[in-house]
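Curious: explain these tokens?
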Amino acid sequence: MAKAAGGHGEISVIVVEKKLIPPEILKDSVLVHLAAAYYSVGKQLEQKTQCSQTRGFILSTLRGGAVLNQNQIANLLGFDRTVVHRSIKTMIQEGLLSERKAESGRALLVKLTAKGNKYRESLIKERRAAEEKVRKELLPNEIAALLRLLKVIAEVKF
């Protein structure tokens, strides 16, 4: 049976047990294999870092000293405002973000704290380590071919 993955502010992903996918689709589907690889990498990094993709994306939008309100972050990421609000509220409580009232309007502006910057840097370090492990498994020509093929797939119009 299909179920929605996540909760707690994570990106909604439909996870289907492999036994429920017809063998001919599992065997030949480029998109199924692409999605499975993406999901696997994301889940492994999430388990290792204890950071959901949503939190990671929010931290990324606030890099370099950026100061944004919650609606701006939600719009930039294409996420539901409620999901972003919940994640930001938790990250403020954890000391990763700080908030202040905007000079005009009712918006609250958020930015990374020193602790948030340090945490973001640790996430980047883990992602780079994962990247290096993948690169060690592939030959340089395989990496080049994979990147070229991923670009082709990304540009396909459905």
